[in-house]
Amino acid sequence: MAQEVSEYLSQNPRVAAWVEALRCDGETDKHWRHRREFLLRNAGDLAPTGGAAAANTEEAADAESGTRNRQLQQLISFSMAWANHVFLGCRYPQKVMDKILSMAEGIKVTGAPIHTTRDELVAKKG
């Protein structure tokens, strides 16, 4: 899938510039590659499109910029929570975990660390 994402971005420079602007300082290439895929899979109408029609669409979208901004911030937050879960072992309330895992369905992450929770360690000793 990473190859498909790279190919898609090379054909859509506006989308590539948009998603690159969402990368965090200090984010490793590996984390970014997977979080970028998460963002692109879930961006929907938030990602820019190409062509002249896109300019008119963007002008119309300016009227809804508050809603779009909230949706974008929520998407970014979900992407970070998902990346933190996968790469750092962070856990979130079940409702959030259900949401981010469903949003990430189909994203193949290789070489992610395996984390053991405190509850799992206690259960093994018991």
TrEMBL record:
Residue ranges constituting the XRN2-binding (XTBD) domain according to the UniProt record? 19-125
Low complexity bias spans: 46-58
The family database entries (Pfam families) matched by this protein are listed as: XTBD
The UniProt entry, under PROSITE patterns, shows: XTBD
User: Which InterPro entries does UniProt cross-reference here?
Assistant: XTBD
Protein name stated in the entry: CDKN2A-interacting protein isoform X2
Disordered: annotated span: 46-67
Similarity annotation: Belongs to the CARF family.
Kindly list the GO CC terms recorded for this protein.
nucleolus; nucleoplasm
